[in-house]
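Hi D.,

Good news: the full-assembly prediction came through. Inputs first.
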Amino acid sequence: MIYADYNGSAPLCEAVKNHLIQRLQNDGPYANPNAAHKIGQRVLTNMENSRAICAKSLGAKYGQVIFNSGSTEGIATVFHSILEKAQQRGKDILITSTIEHSAIINTAEHYRDHHDFELYFIQANKAGIVDLEQLEELLEKFGQRVALVSIMAANNETGVIQPYKKISQICHNHLVPFFCDTTQIIGKAPFNFKDSEIDYAVMSGHKIGAMTGTGLIIAKDPTSIRPIIIGGGQEKALRGGTQHYLGLETLAIALGHVEKNFERIEQLKEKRIAFEANMKKKFPKLCIIGEDSPRLATTTYVSHPGLNGQSVQIELENHNIFVTTSSACSDGDTSTSKVLKAMGIKDEIGMGVVRISLGLCARLEAYDEIEEALTKTYEKLMGS
Ligand SMILES: Cc1ncc(COP(=O)(O)O)c(C=O)c1O
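Then the structure:
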């Protein structure tokens, strides 16, 4: 079996499994990390160690890390934190891009439809990269009225990495805060919050082999965060609710695992490059989306003109290989994805795509096996 939907959700990584097994065998400590008693304090110490590990591994300061349930919550929190205050100061424009994840698009549209923000979308080119000139133009034109720019670091479908450091600089030249959805880049490409100059970043533990329901925000200035969940004052009153401390320990373990084993990502990248080259030799019309752009090491979004993506997916499943036809959230939707449409990809290609996404815990041989199965699949579907 090959699970090739890491961009959707990664399997628990080995180091995380070992940590959990050990913790269960030791039968604890389990307690509320906000409790004053000794066991609570031990849990708190573990959780704060986890925060320190996450901060160090992501190039952030300890106090800049706010734990939560994952990126969707992080996105809602950042928008909520910035927009309400900005609007009071006459800033009523929001800029995002056409290739964002629906968690960003829907949130931005919510602020347009229910809070009177004007919303502008930066276009992407055929290579899957957002148009920085258009961003510059909008910032020149609207300057002081722009409340927030929200553009992702790496696209979940194509794996294309955006020039996020340049975007930071452009935004800061115009004194506009920059929120970067870093969900897909963390754990799959080098990322350092301080060097990126981003103002807000988010992540979900389940994308990198930690437990689902865990995540964090990194805020350059954590005092700018306003909680969407008030609760009992946890996370320095920035995110109410008892922390998922066990899961947050796994978040630190998974990030540490990525840091220690990063050369494996490079090995997987070599295998991915060979896999794509071999497939193109066998099928000269093959289209690899974002082929010439900087891309996540382990994402291939591939289509053969005339073939239907769902048929390819089902056939691969018969070979025990699990891929998606687009982003997991819109899987089952047979039309060309919004991201591909935004890149100007025609239906002939857009309706044929499957996304093959692996990650650190994948076997190197997985690419050889996927190549064999995808070759047989294409041959079969072309012959029928
Ligand atoms: C780029 C991006 N942003 C945000 C999210 C939302 O993450 P979650 O569902 O873990 O909250 C995802 C999940 O696929 C994603 O790929």
